[in-house]
Q: What sequence folds into this?
């Protein structure tokens, strides 16, 4: 059986080649002459088959129209459940200041009154010189506790004769 097929193909190879070129040439000519390059007409597109990625970026920009008017406000929702009671705010807020004279590297701190905690603070070199540096300013926890009750800092004063340095702490009752 295989010998008969091979014999048939050898005997008709020229006829098959002629048929191939005749049919291929007319379809090639029809595709290049009758239809412009990269064209697809409406009959070839199936409804809802195109995605945004099928369009060029410039064409996608043209798809956006002007912004519409704002719609009417919806109805108010129902009242939510009452929330938990919040913690009371800080009371008895007080500012404690301490001014010390410093020359070279110096550190100091200022304490809150008993029963209060440090909620803020700072360190400032009064009338600083060009080389004077504030090195650190931070709250301090004293005696193994967890709540800061002191504010401290370090300065480096290069001005001759030293400078006055102010240490501040803002304290409040919890």
A:
């Amino acid at each position: 059986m295989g010998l008969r097929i091979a014999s048939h193909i050898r005997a008709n190879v020229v006829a098959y080649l002629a048929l191939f070129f005749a049919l291929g040439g007319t379809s090639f000519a029809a595709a290049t002459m009758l239809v412009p390059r990269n064209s697809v007409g409406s009959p070839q597109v199936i409804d809802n088959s195109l995605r945004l990625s099928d369009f060029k970026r410039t064409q996608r920009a043209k798809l956006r129209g002007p912004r519409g008017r704002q719609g009417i406000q919806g109805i108010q929702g129902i009242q939510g459940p009452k929330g938990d009671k919040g913690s009371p705010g800080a009371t008895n807020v007080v500012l404690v200041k301490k001014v010390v004279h410093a020359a070279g590297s110096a550190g100091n701190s200022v304490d809150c009154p008993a029963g209060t905690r440090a909620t803020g603070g700072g360190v400032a070199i009064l009338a600083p010189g060009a080389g004077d540096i504030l090195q650190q300013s931070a709250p301090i926890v004293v005696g193994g506790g967890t709540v800061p009750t002191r504010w401290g800092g370090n300065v480096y004063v290069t001005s001759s004769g030293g400078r006055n340095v102010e240490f501040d702490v803002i304290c409040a009752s919890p």
The radius of gyration is 44 Å. Helices lie at 2-33, 57-62.
